[in-house]
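Q: What does the predicted 3D structure of 3-hydroxybutyrate dehydrogenase look like?
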Amino acid sequence: QLSPRTAIITGSTSGIGLGIARQLAAEGCNVVVNSFSDTPEDRATAESLSAEHGVKAIYVQADMSDPEQCRSLVASAAAAFGSVDILVNNAGVQYVAPVEEFPIAKWNQIIAINLSSAFHTSAAAIPFMKQTGRGRIVNIASAHGLVASAYKSAYVAAKHGIMGLTKTIALELAQDGITCNAVCPGYVLTPLVEAQIPDQMKAHGMDRETVIREVMLDRQPTKQFVTVEQVAAAVSFLCSEAASQMNGTHVSVDGGWTAQ
Ligand code: NAD
C-alpha cells in the first residue's frame, strides 16, 4: 500500500482550485489549500475537506505573486506531509484593457501570478518529487493558452507562456517518473467569471441570460459553461497512473472553443 499522496493546489479557496482540492481529497490525497489571504474561512475550507474525506488538509497562506512565498509554500507542504507528489498550479487573476492603456502594475501582477508562480513552485517541488521517483505537475492554463481574445494581453501572454513552461519541464523530467501537463478550460462559472457579468450587462445593455449566451459563451460552441467538476476530473486523470505517458501536452475542456 502506497502512502497517501500529497497534493498542493495553488489558489484553492474558491472556484476551480477548490474543486480540484475536493476531487484529490476524495481520492485520498492529503491536500494543501492555498491563497494569499489569512482568514478563518480559509482555514475552515481545509478543515472541511479533511472532515469530509478523512484525509489531512492544511491551509498555507502564500502570495503567488511573490517568488519567495511560492517556494516557501512547497517547503511548508513537504514539512507537513513529508512529500510532494502532486502540484497543481491554479492561482490566476484577470484584467481586461486595451494594450496601450493596460496598467503596468496589472501586467506585472498577471505575469507573476499566472506564469512565474508556476516556475517557482515547480522548481521547489521537483527535488521532492525526484526523491520518491514520482510526481505530477498540472498547470491550469486556459483556452487562452492556445488562442487569444482582444483586451486580455497579459492573461493571454501568461497562459501561452505556461504552455511553453509545461513542455520544457516535461522534457527535463521525462526520465524521473514525473510528468508535467496543462488543462485548458473554456469558460467556467466561478466567482472570477460571475464578477464580470454585471459589468458586461452594463457595457452591452443586455440582461444576464443574453450576456451569458451572446458575450461570454459566444466562442464556446456548446453554449454551456464548463463545470468545476469537469476541470477537476481532467486534473485527476492526469494525476493517475493511466496518464503516465501523457507528458508535455494539454487537455482542453472548452466545449469546442479551440476547434474553431
Ligand atoms: P477564482 O477567482 O474563483 O479563484 C482564484 C483563486 O486564486 C482564489 O482561491 C484566489 O484566492 C486565488 N488567488 C488569487 N490571487 C492569488 C495570489 N496572489 N496568491 C495566491 N492565490 C491567489 O478563479 P477561477 O475561475 O477558479 O480560476 C482558477 C484558474 O483557472 C486561473 O488560473 C484561471 O486563469 C483559470 N481559468 C479559469 C477559467 C474560468 O472561466 N473561470 C477559464 C480558464 C482558465
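A (community wiki): The C-alpha cells above were generated from the sequence. The radius of gyration is 18 Å. The chain is about 45% helix and 15% strand.
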